[in-house]
């Protein structure tokens, strides 16, 4: 009886030791969750991370410092796959599926937006939804699109994408502009001709009456600020 008890005790101790040497799946999921929380911290909205289950049939060696990473080309939002690797004492790598949703506001067309016409506020609506399911470069603030023109006709209900919008130029090719440079105690101005279109705040190149090409910052009212 004593021999049987000792054998059972030894078996229990051996089993506990073996379990202690196997990686806890919950730790892997926690590593992925923390990694995605950090990676998505700058996204514009309420972030929710859902980590998939880890295959319980895997018996990975316990790792004191598992490291999460994204595969090349992967993004830390929407449906994604995160790798977790261990360098020591036993190297291994596993891949775990996850989903990162971002509940936020985006700008959609409240009414049809014709191509090439400046967008006004009455044409816009603010909608709430999962931003990760929407097209890239989605507008999230009306200020981003007001006054711009669209490269395409936009139907009511469609989200507005910044990459399909153009900023209204304040300086146009061939326009006569006023070059202005100022500093402590002085202000100099001269006339020149723009050689390209530019929106407010963009760099534009102009040509002076003498044929010299100068770069400056386009401003409303046909002005170009130049630093000498």
UniProtKB/TrEMBL annotation:
Where do transmembrane segments lie in this chain? none
Q: SMART domains under this entry?
A: SAF
Signal peptide span: 1-19
InterPro entries, per the entry? Flagellar_FlgA (IPR039246), FlgA_N (IPR041231), SAF (IPR013974), SAF_FlgA (IPR017585)
Q: Which Pfam families match?
A: ChapFlgA, ChapFlgA_N
Give the record's keywords alphabetically. Answer: Bacterial flagellum biogenesis, Cell projection, Cilium, Flagellum, Periplasm, Signal
- What Gene Ontology biological process does one annotation of this record name? bacterial-type flagellum assembly
The record places domain SAF at 104-166
One GO CC annotation: periplasmic space
Report the subcellular localization.
Periplasm
> Per its UniProt entry, which superkingdom is the organism in?
Bacteria
Q: Which PANTHER family match?
A: FLAGELLA BASAL BODY P-RING FORMATION PROTEIN FLGA (PTHR36307:SF1)
What is known about what this protein does?
A: Involved in the assembly process of the P-ring formation. It may associate with FlgF on the rod constituting a structure essential for the P-ring assembly or may act as a modulator protein for the P-ring assembly.
Q: What's this protein's family per the entry?
A: Belongs to the FlgA family.
Q: What is this protein identified as?
A: Flagella basal body P-ring formation protein FlgA
């Amino acid at each position: 009886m004593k021999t049987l008890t000792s054998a059972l005790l030894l078996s229990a101790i051996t089993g506990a030791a073996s379990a202690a040497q196997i990686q806890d799946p919950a730790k892997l999921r926690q590593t992925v969750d923390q990694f995605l929380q950090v990676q998505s911290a700058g996204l514009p909205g309420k972030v929710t991370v859902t980590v998939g289950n880890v295959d319980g049939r895997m018996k990975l060696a316990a790792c004191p410092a598992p490291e999460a990473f994204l595969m090349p080309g992967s993004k830390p939002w929407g449906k994604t796959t995160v790798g977790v690797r261990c360098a020591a004492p036993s190297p291994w790598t596993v891949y775990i599926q996850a989903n990162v949703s971002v509940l936020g506001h985006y700008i959609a067309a409240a009414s049809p937006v014709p191509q090439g016409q400046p967008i006004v506020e009455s044409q816009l609506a603010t909608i709430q939804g999962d931003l990760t399911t929407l097209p890239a470069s989605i507008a999230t603030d009306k200020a981003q699109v007001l006054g711009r023109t669209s490269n395409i006709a936009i139907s009511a209900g469609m989200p507005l994408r910044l990459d399909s919008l153009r900023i209204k130029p304040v300086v146009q090719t061939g326009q006569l502009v006023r070059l202005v440079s100022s500093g402590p105690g002085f202000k100099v101005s001269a006339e020149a001709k723009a050689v390209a279109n530019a929106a407010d705040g963009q760099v534009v190149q102009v040509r002076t009456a003498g044929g010299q090409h100068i770069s400056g910052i386009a401003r409303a009212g046909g002005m170009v600020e130049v630093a000498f």
